[in-house]
Amino acid sequence: MELLDVDKLIEEFESMTKDAGNVQRETLKKILEENGCAEYLQNLGLNGRTDPESFKACVPLVTHNDLQPYIQRIVDGSSSPILTGKPITTISLSSGTTQGKPKFVPFNDELMETTLQIYRTSYAFRTREFPIENGKALQLIYSSKQSKTKGGLIAGTATTNVFRNSQFKNTMKAMQSQCCSPDEVIFGPDFHQSLYCHLLCGLIFREEIQFISSTFSHSIVHAFRTFEQVWEELCADIREGVLTSRITFPSVRSAMAKLLKPNPELADLIHKKCLGLNNWYGLIPELFPNVKYIYGIMTGSMEPYLKKLRHYARDLPLISADYGSSEGWIGTNVNPNVPPELATFVVLPDIGYFEFIPLKENIEEAKPVGLTEVKVGEEYEVIITSFAGLYRYRLGDVVKVTGFHNLSPELKFICRRNLMLTINIDKNTEKDLQLAVEAASKLNIEEKLEVLDFSSHVDLSTNPGHYVIFWEISGEVREEVLEECCNCLDRSFVDAGYVSSRKINAIGPLELRVVQRGTFQKILNHYVGLGAALSQFKTPRCVGSTNNEVLQILCNNVVKSYFSTAF
């Protein structure tokens, strides 16, 4: 297996970003030539034109809702070219939800290739700063099951579709980034058992581990929190060379049996190191002496985990992984030595066609600008045109342009435009909160009472963090009814990331806090006091910890509090 040529990859990236404007035009041309026969584009009257001006004049800005009917026909098995020239055979399930269901997003070979391109590019910049030897990686990755849609297409989360692709493994080998765990562990049917085996494999190969990674920083923190609970059991397995009975799946057991041999010296060493730590500070470099860095998505909703990750990592560099979504990739981290809180991502001009809606103007009237036309310091919503059938698709992400790398902008991720509640891989919008409150408040109907107003908060002061829902109710409600309302709220968040995190207690039980009458009036008074127009006042549906005064009003007026027992 030939290793990647780091200098050549960086050179290609540099020349491409120096010519970002032309590369964008060529990329759009290529996308439209490959997919011009697709029904969606045919209906818009492009008639074979591939220039940006005609494209913008003919093709409207869309959201996932607009494309849903087309995607549904693909999911149901229609083989005609609907969104792409070549048939789509795989669907990605996004972790975000639309109206209470995971979104279906087309996935194809072209999208896989852009994924590997992003991986290779960021690897080149990482390796230049932090060279690694030809060892192994402790990759805390888990693949959910792929299923078949009604129409026979393969459906899975975006990461699963990538991990299960044959090219993924070859690229990892070329990047000296082979996972130390066997496939049976990555694709194991039980998250807890896979995590235990990942940790065990890491310890067996501890001298060879060059870096530790996962899709999200939350998963890395979760893994080492688990290590604190199971380290003695791991040591026993290594000492005896026999796998604990907690691993029940035969395929996983037999794969691990090939790696596990009695090694009392290693067991004693790990045992001694663990006992020598103060509150597990610096755990990672103690266990893995040759690790060069820790790598994963650490921006946005992952930032709250950095404090704990640094506790485990001591002075090891934390490097934030690339910027993308289930719909497609956008940018790569070319400054790996910058702390994750300051990470920016340079857009790759050949992996899609990008436009940006300026946010300082009225969003309905704002005209999107091209990749090379954005201004430093401004915030924009990202619009993506991909090789996988999305044209002028509003991603819903807000980014800030922090500078340029040659002629391609450097973006800092700010937030999801419509994202409200998120702790790790869960993503719940205002709409999801609304649906949950509607479902639970129906239980009050028999009591002839209503929920007058509501808000929410992500409480990260507990470990694990949990959702808090604030309710103002029109009268007294019986305890057992409110307990059931609390459980109903918890069950009503159907986002796959939330449900799976709740099941493994990576997110704690939802808390319902009932506030006294008049609380939301106090919030309104607070905003009006700051100069807000009464006619435009909207109750904040999610109150962040930065909105301290409103959070104080809510918390100071709580009269009852309930925790869910739904999971």
Q: Would you mind describing this structure in some detail?
A:
The chain folds into 3 domains: 146 residues, no CATH class; 174 residues, no CATH class; 134 residues. It starts with 5 loop residues before the first helix and ends with a strand. The strands form 5 sheets. The chain has an 8-stranded antiparallel beta sheet with strand order 9-10-11-16-15-14-12-13. It is globular, with a radius of gyration of 25 Å. It is α+β, with helices and mostly antiparallel strands and 567 residues long. The chain is 38% helix and 22% strand. Helix 11 crosses helix 13 and helix 11 runs parallel beside helix 15. It contains 20 helices and 22 strands. Strand 9 and strand 10 form a beta hairpin. About 2% of the residues have low confidence.
Gyration radius, rounded: 25 Å
Whole-number mean pLDDT:
85
What general form does the structure show?
A: globular
- Widest sheet, order of strands: 9-10-11-16-15-14-12-13
Give the biggest beta sheet: 8 strands, antiparallel
Protein name: Jasmonic acid-amido synthetase JAR1-like
Keywords: Ligase
InterPro entries: GH3, GH3_C, GH3_M
GO molecular function: acid-amino acid ligase activity
